[in-house]
Write a structure and sequence with these properties.
Length: 229
DNA sequence: ATCCCGAGGG
DNA sequence: CCCTCTGGAT
């Protein structure tokens, strides 16, 4: 029996509120990684690990001109590619990932990016988070990309009791309609960057502070203000 | 010092 | 489960 991990009390109703309010707050939430096709999005998403999307967008225009398709990436000189993406960090592992992934795309998928999760995650350097971004943004297929922000917000909002990304994905997907998954990921990420920050969350400015079990609000001023402190 | 739209390997 | 990989911003 799949030990039905239970969701935190009230998770469903909180999730519904989160979906509605974030949609109102960020109606135009979109993937910020500049790309022109699924392969470019895949490469940009790999580059975005531990790096802001803004800095990824600084290197990708030149990168995509130099390597216009999977075949070009597949036959790239590693040292040259490393240099081109150095500023995004983790450049050795990212270079390996991009080259080996592209060789795989050429050998097994005709140089095109597959549009199924089970195929995407077999590619070197592609995990569920990256796969869900590509599925949702490039192919319009529902997917909840669980990154550091989604992990943090889902935990603070008690939409899940788990800290494991795969279980978070399952928990949140279980209580949110599939039609909302992709937009919800993007909005949680945006909200995590702007408001629900890792170190110092701006709870007083948060549109979810009334339903968030983790919200830390300044004590409401009592009727009579006491001096001192 | 801590964090940024992670994934592979031990 | 843990660790490692990397640079840049704050």
């Amino acid at each position: 029996m799949p030990a039905a991990r239970r969701l935190p009390a009230g998770a469903r109703s909180r999730a519904a509120t989160v979906v509605d309010r974030l949609a109102a707050e960020y109606p135009d939430a979109a993937c910020a990684l500049v790309h022109g096709d699924p392969l470019q999005l895949l490469v940009a998403t790999i580059l975005s690990a531990q790096c802001t999307d803004e800095r990824v967008n600084l290197v990708t225009p030149g990168l995509f001109r130099r390597y216009p398709d999977a075949a070009a990436f597949a036959s790239a000189d590693a040292a040259e590619l490393e240099e081109a993406i150095r500023s995004t960090g983790f450049f050795r592992s990212k270079t390996r990932a991009i080259i080996e992934m592209s060789q795989d795309l050429v050998a097994r998928y005709g140089g095109r990016v597959p549009d199924r999760m089970e195929d995407l995650v077999t590619l070197r350097g592609v995990g569920r988070k990256t796969a869900n971004v590509v599925l949702g943004v490039a192919f319009g297929r529902p997917g909840l990309a669980v990154d550091t922000h989604v992990t943090r917000l889902a935990g603070r909002l008690r939409l899940t009791a788990s800290t494991d990304p795969v279980e978070i994905e399952r928990d949140v997907c279980a209580i949110v309609p599939a039609s909302e998954w992709t937009a919800l990921s993007l909005r949680l990420i945006l909200h995590g960057r702007r408001v629900c920050q890792a170190r110092r969350p701006r709870c007083p400015e948060c549109v979810l502070n009334d339903i968030c079990p983790s919200a830390q609000l300044p004590a409401v001023a009592p009727g009579r203000v006491r001096a001192g402190r």
